[in-house]
Amino acid sequence: MKRIKIQLVTLIIGLGFILPSCSDFLDQENPSSASSGSYWNNKQEAEAMLGGCYGVLQQQGLYFNYYNGADPRALDGFGTTDGSSGWWFWSPADNALSWGQLSPSQELVEVVWDACYKGIARCNEIILYVPQMGPDKIEQADADRIVGEAKFLRAFFYNYLTSLYRDVPLSTEPTSTGYISKSSKADVVQFITEDLKKVVESDALPDKISAEERGRADKGAAWALLCRIYLYNQKWAEAASAAQKVIDLGYNLEDNYLKLFSEAGNNSQEVLFAVRFSATIDGTENKMRGFLSTRNNENYYTPITVTGDLLNEYYDKNGKTLSKTSFTSEELLDPANRDPRWGYNFIGIEETWKSDDWINWYQVLSGHINKYQDYTVTEKFYDDQDYYVIRYADVLLMRAEALANSSGSQSEIEGLINQVRDRASVRMPHVTAAEISEAGGILNVVKHERRVELAFEGHRYFDLKRWGEYNKLSEYAYVGEAKSQVWPIPQKELDNNKALTQAPEWGGE
């Protein structure tokens, strides 16, 4: 078993599940395996247990390795959708969604399920046992904060589960005797939103964390997560309100888009919640490369090929779509003539196969991912780049989407989009009536902005699912709307828990 060294105040999640050592770190194989009678003795031990909850975020299936927005093979959302294609050493697991090979026994289905429920079980321990410690072992404010963060993470894990598997077992205890049947998605969502809202409306979490505590949840992160959960479940008024709570806390966009996705951006005012990463362990470089960056010198970048569909989503610098632009196809390959985010997110763009009459040039543009490739770090091989789970630009666009779906003020919606475009390093033209008309409505303008602003940050797959655009979920093999709506419950879970039933789309009743 891999060993964990955790001090939550300086929580840094590393690729090998090992954190930089310090004299007051707790060092044990798995803090969550400790018995309730021998472990809950002081704040340090309670925070170490909480560190185990945060540590699940780095596991395969969430924000480390195979399948998520942090993996170079899956940067536009599970390595599928209409955004990026892998060109190296694909495994059956990596290809599950891309090739329409998802099944109850598929590794991807099991890995994501296991990671989320491991996190939930650890959070449930915190929520049950910390309040029982009493004032002799932990101050009330510290206990409230630790429990509040555990409830934030539990809501996060359950939102991930319901967004993929829909109806899932709702467990609120560390252990259970007997089988647990599925709860409806609506019931799970109601539970986690009510639970988290009580936390964020209390004094349990600070309004904002300090730079030294980055990686921990605060009120900004909690309101943003509530906004995301509401949005994913078409609760437009609640989503808009939660986003406004974040806005009222005084967050701002980072002026320099390129700097944001570098080591220097880790403490940016735009980042609401991030998974922390250090490429060094006890002063030694982690030889598994950076958490997101795969470069090994200033000329190397992730080998994932970006699809022409995504590349051509970006307007020209005058705010014109490629169907309306006055630039030639060759001129559009120059980042100086495009939305600046085109150049920040991609590198090595070129036009290929121009002689093939059956392929037009919009389809055959090729390029590679440049986001998160920190070329400012020259003195060492690897960079210490965090992975951003929630940032302020996403919150602004979530509020815009919620308002667009609920007949909100169009001027406010445009203003939210324009705020994202007004970033000092972007300065794209504001939304116009002509753009709205060409897009087919203001909601489609919001969708466009999400795609170009948040490319390779792991949102696209979930965006397409909630928009019902199922035919875009797989780059190669569309399996149909029914099976695209929901993942199957892992077969091993069905075998072990006789109270579980498979989703109807996958052969269940």
Automatic annotation (TrEMBL):
Primary localisation category: membrane
The keyword Signal belongs to this UniProt entry's keyword annotation: yes
Compartment(s): Cell outer membrane
Keywords of this entry: Cell outer membrane, Membrane, Signal
Domain RagB/SusD: 269-506
One Gene Ontology cellular component: cell outer membrane
Domain (SusD-like N-terminal) ranges: 24-231
Superkingdom to which the source organism belongs: Bacteria
Keyword Signal attributed: yes
Annotated Pfam families: SusD-like_3 (PF14322), SusD_RagB (PF07980)
Family according to the record: Belongs to the SusD family.
Protein's name in the database: Starch-binding associating with outer membrane
Upper lineage: Bacteria, Pseudomonadati, Bacteroidota, Bacteroidia, Bacteroidales
